[in-house]
Amino acid sequence: MKALCCWVGVAAALWFVMFAPWTAPHVDFWTAMSCSGVLLGGVALVAGRPWPAHDRRIWLELVLGVALAVVLWGVFWLGDKVSQLLFGFARGQVDAIYSLGEGAARWRVGALLLFVIGPAEELFWRGYVQRRLSERLGVWGGFALATAAYTLIHVWSFNFMLVGAAGVCGVCWGGLYALFPRHFPALLLSHALWDVAAFVVFPF
Fold first, then answer.
1. In the 8-state DSSP scheme, what is residue 197?
2. Residues contacting residue 118 through CB under 8 Å, at least 6 positions apart
3. Contact residues for 92 (Cβ-Cβ < 8 A; gap 6+)
4. Which of 44, 132, 145, 157 is most buried, judged by most C-beta within 10 A?
């Protein structure tokens, strides 16, 4: 448990550095995210199998992963429209999120999100943090605490829309992991595909 707390603290520190205003002029945001992902995803893999014995029907994992990414993108598309009606600051904050990677080649961002950042985040937050917490606190206790941690590390962005988006994603992927841990490969795929769709192909 001490190791888990330490690594969550490391994740919080990394997010703080990535979003700090003095970091942006000197460090490429997507490179920093990728390096953090490699470290944290590596921790999840070294710590042990990040998911229980999974469904061996690869085609099913592919279908579920794509379907979940599409549904979640639709949820965010609707949420974006509603938030703009309710909050005057919403559009500006969403634009601020996209400005973090300003100037980076789209193909490079897409590749990093698909092959490094998305999978690594899922490995760490669900495959390591939520799994370990669930072993100690029960399925739903682990889900609640892991989702809270995943959401709260985004407060360093000082961006209400990003924190809210992290909360929605955490509830979605964390809830599905709690209910269907054997389909973790589908969750990992959906995270990677949703990242690419939301940040590169079909941004909000």
1. I
2. 188, 191, 192, 193, 194, 195, 196
3. none
4. 44
The CA distance from 50 to 120, in Å, is 11
Residues 184 and 61: their CA atoms lie apart, in Å, by 8
Amino acid at 80: D
Asked if 123 contacts 117 with a C-beta cutoff of 8 angstroms, the reply is: no
What pTM was computed for the model?
A: 0.92
Q: Are 34 and 117 in contact (CB under 8 A)?
A: yes
CB 72 within 8 A of CB 79: no
Residue 88 and residue 94: Cα distance in Å, rounded? Answer: 11
Q: In Å, how far are 29, 37, 44, 143, 182 from 32, measured between CA atoms?
A: 5, 8, 18, 27, 31
Residue carrying structure tokens 């009606």: 85
Q: Are 121 and 127 in contact, with CB atoms under 8 Å apart?
A: no
Signed CA dihedral, 65, 68, 72, 78: sign only = positive
Q: Give the count of beta carbons closer than 10 Å to the beta carbon of residue 182.
A: 14
Residues in the chain: 204
